[in-house]
Amino acid sequence: MSEHDFEPVRGLPADLPEGEHIVWQGAPDWKTMARRVFHVPMVGLYFGGLAAWRVTDAVASGASLGAALQSALWVTPLAVAAIGLLAGLAWLNCRTTVYTITNRRVVMRFGAALTKAINIPFNIIESAAVKTFADGGGDLSLTLVKPNKISYVMLWPHARPGKISAPQPTFRAIPNARDVAAKLAAVLGPSAAPIVAAPASAPPATSAHAQP
Q1: How far is CA 186 from CA 172, 174, 208, 209, in A?
Q2: Element of type H or E holding 132
């Protein structure tokens, strides 16, 4: 049993008020989170490069290839530990995260040791942007109406990368990001422009605006 078993509604800090209902609910994909948020492949490449450099340096210093390969073995346990730790953090983060869109607000519940539930009413959402990946997953970011602001440290890793001075709450690594963006656009209101899914290689397009 976990602390989340006592939630009145999964992913929400309290029961839904009368007239409010859940439109969509989901969580990040942990493999995508490991790749794109915790950068597990990059860490693997770093240790691979470190091992290759060690072998090359040893051979250049006169060691045999066998001895050079053996001298690089010390990298292996470090690589396994680092990759295992980051992959574990990605899995734990996804397991404890629930993103929710209702007909009135967006809610982000996350955190293993310290659970946070962040409520974002539609009237403080200025715009939204979606960035899709090749597998159909992606990130859905929200720009808040000033002066509303949520600390980047409080949000991380559920924040748009690089937006530190003006943090953007973000559904990270969600499957079927295009469909989720369409659901959000639909409930933001009839006067809101649709959220356009940008190609994976392009920056996200911002086009959905919340009604006051």
Answers
A1: 20, 18, 10, 11
A2: strand 125-132
For residue 105, list its beta bridge partners.
121
**Closest C-alpha among 93, 180, 80, 98 to residue 131:** 180
Measured in Å, how far apart are the chain's first and last C-alpha atoms? 41
47, exposed or middle or buried, with CB in 10 Å at 0-12, 13-18, 19+?
middle
What string of DSSP letters covers 75-114? HHHHHHHHHHHHHHHHHHHHHT-EEEEESSEEEEEE-SSS
C-alpha atoms less than 13 angstroms from C-alpha of 127 in its C-beta half-sphere: 10
pLDDT digits (tens, 9 = 90+) for 63-120: 888 888 888 888 889 999 999 999 999 999 999 999 999 999 999 999 877 889 999 9
3-state secondary structure of 188: helix
Q: Give CA–CA dist 119/16, Å, rounded.
A: 12
State the pTM of this model.
0.82
